[in-house]
Amino acid sequence: MTERVAAPRGRGGRRKRPTMLDVAREAGVALRTVSRVVNDDPTVGADLVTRVRAAIAALDYAPDERAQQLRRGTSGTVGAAVRNLADAHPVLSAVDNAARAAGLAVLAMSTEDDERRERDAVMSMCRRRVDGIVIEPIGTSHDYLSAELAGGLPLVAVDRPCGGVEADAVLSDNAAGIGMAYRQLSVHGHRRIAYVGDDERIFTGRERAAAFRACVAASGGPLAGMVHPGVVTASRVSAALSAVLSGPAPATALITGNVATTIEALRYLGAEAGRLAVVGFDDFPLADILRPGLTVVAQNSAVIGRTAIDLLVARSADPARPVQTVTVPVELVARGSGELPPPA
Amino acid sequence: MTERVAAPRGRGGRRKRPTMLDVAREAGVALRTVSRVVNDDPTVGADLVTRVRAAIAALDYAPDERAQQLRRGTSGTVGAAVRNLADAHPVLSAVDNAARAAGLAVLAMSTEDDERRERDAVMSMCRRRVDGIVIEPIGTSHDYLSAELAGGLPLVAVDRPCGGVEADAVLSDNAAGIGMAYRQLSVHGHRRIAYVGDDERIFTGRERAAAFRACVAASGGPLAGMVHPGVVTASRVSAALSAVLSGPAPATALITGNVATTIEALRYLGAEAGRLAVVGFDDFPLADILRPGLTVVAQNSAVIGRTAIDLLVARSADPARPVQTVTVPVELVARGSGELPPPA
DNA sequence: ATGAAAGCGCTAACAT
DNA sequence: ATGTTAGCGCTTTCAT
Fold first, then answer.
1. Got the DSSP string for B5-67?
2. pLDDT digit string (tens) for A137-154?
3. Category of A247 on φ-ψ map: left (φ > 0), alpha (ψ -120 to 50) or beta
4. How many other C-beta atoms can be found within 10 angstroms of the C-beta atom of residue A139?
5. Which residue of A141, B116, B195, B283 sits 20 to 30 Å from the alpha carbon of A64, by its own alpha carbon?
6. Which residues pair with B5 in a beta bridge?
């Protein structure tokens, strides 16, 4: 690590920021008039507007939003507590765009899938008096929020519902997605289809595994040894796959229950990946440059994010409105891996 | 999209939040005592502490951070203006972790590679009186920040330097990275090596293309038709590749200048990818599950993020300290694609 | 159309 | 060890 040190920065210490009062003095008007100009109040004389604007420019004045918020009682900010800032996060991006369109800033914090960090993040947002929170819930119990909810805090869960409290939620249609994946594989001749996915203690893991079992039951396929929910680790996924692919009647197709499982499965399969039909739940960038391209059930992140902000805004406007759960459709994206035939 | 509407939320409108004064009354003490307890001032009697704590719990009181900030004159927040919230962003994650370790919250906003949005985001952060800003600069001129900088705002650029203003910066060692890539390909027998990368109007594009030319010159390899900097679009990358791979003396190896170019190149090459040696600048998740695995020059995002916060904190403490540019080493990660031999 | 004064919720001097 | 008072920078009655 190289450190290149340049000449000292030509600024001696922190100069005091100009306040509204400074602007007022500079322009020779009352404080109130500056406030009016800043807030585009039409009842200010044109000449004064010009004078105030000039003073603002001369002093490089920018209003202190904290003071505005404090006085106005609203923060113009929504909190977003998401699992991770490092991985691709299309929902966060969609929330950001929808919020900005609604004139709201986004305070994003990561929970790192840790219950305590989630709680810290959310509480910190509350202390900042955000106008609402979008959360990808991690813990099972969110009753630490019941006081805030009773106080009128708009809270929208995405991807999975909150536990222990009534809150609006935006979920993907997990059952339909698994159905699409199963059908696609069936249509391409597969009878022995396996599922490896998330732990059933996690909402989506539970929903998807259950939907898979229902599909198998409905189609009269074999179920024994074909369903492997559990913690997503390299070793567990490897073990599940080797079990599913060995024995007298190995699976010829695989459904993976989330991106992490999909990646681990592809990693384990290595060059064999082209011989096993695979459909993954949830899309990810680069799924299309794999060989063969990965067929996935894609969630509609853009709609999820926008809907979350819509619900948030709606609840802000009417805190007493009924709690709502919106289910967003998913889509099958065929890229090759799900259309491989079973071995002859 | 299905909307499931449940019973009305059992909360009629927004109840007023308890203030510190409410707590004081509830506990039968003075406002100042509550403030002391909230701030863990040791000079409060044990019995009063208990009483105040009880009142806080009873009322579900949480201090208003905006008011604290306003009064304290500091916000405890750093702004992070990054290109994108949707793509993988390891630097943002590292900034988040380092900031949280330093007791700072992170206000992340995306610039979407748009000069105006960057400006809006940064100005909004200034109005929120953040304690500093980490920026992935997009525009060429950042002199709209000169007043803030003169006022003492700590500003740290990551990935590329700011233009037109003096600010601390954390950069990857682009020249060394290109050198590593070039050497790896040379060692594996390649003489005709091509480079496709970002536009030279962009700082990293310029540095990497220049480093590549220097490598070719130093090794006495062919240069004509081998360097293709430019806007990263599917069509431009395709055109560059088809030019480089055709003719009497086609390239046998390729260096791609950033992730977007790498992806487009892989997309274009398709099944041919296994026949051309490739080293990509910058790592990305899943580079290891490609076949062959993609050899990359990996930037050290964790160090970049941590260093950015370190510089920020250092400048906060001493606004007059010399401006500093830190160069962070990169690392070659060999996964197969860069170790392919030239065709016999 | 403009200004004076009160107060948002909190912390920091200064008593006591 | 605890309470009183002022004021952070702004918006908002209420006068004029």
1. EEEEPS--S-PPPP-HHHHHHHHTS-HHHHHHHHTT-TTS-HHHHHHHHHHHHHHT----HHH
2. 988 899 999 989 988 899
3. left
4. 17
5. B116
6. A324
Could B62 and A14 be called an inter-chain contact, meaning their C-beta atoms sit closer than 8 Å?
A: no
Of B298, B297, B307, nearest to B327 by C-alpha is B307
Residues 6 or more apart from A280 whose CB is under 8 A from it?
Answer: A255, A256, A259, A261, A262, A287, A294, A295, A296, A297
Distance measured from the CA of protein residue A151 to the C1' of nucleotide D7, in angstroms: 29
- Closest residue by Cα to residue A25 from A55, A47, A54: A55
Closest residue by Cα to the C1' atom of nucleotide C11?
Answer: B71
B329, closest residue in chain A (CA to CA): A1
Rounded to two decimals, what is the model's pTM?
Answer: 0.93
Give me the residue label for tokens 């948030």: A312
Instruction: For residue B294, give the amino acid letter.
Output: L
For A21-79, the pLDDT digits (tens) are: 999 999 999 999 999 999 999 999 899 999 999 999 999 999 999 999 999 999 999 99
Q: How far is B219 from chain A (nearest CA, A)?
A: 26
Give residue-wise pLDDT tens across range A199-244.
999 999 999 999 999 999 999 999 999 999 999 999 999 999 999 9
The burial of B210, by beta-carbon neighbours within 10 Å (0-12 exposed, 13-18 middle, 19 or more buried), is given as: middle
Task: HSE, CB side, 13 Å, CA atoms: give it for residue B149.
Answer: 19
| Amino acid, res. B121 | A
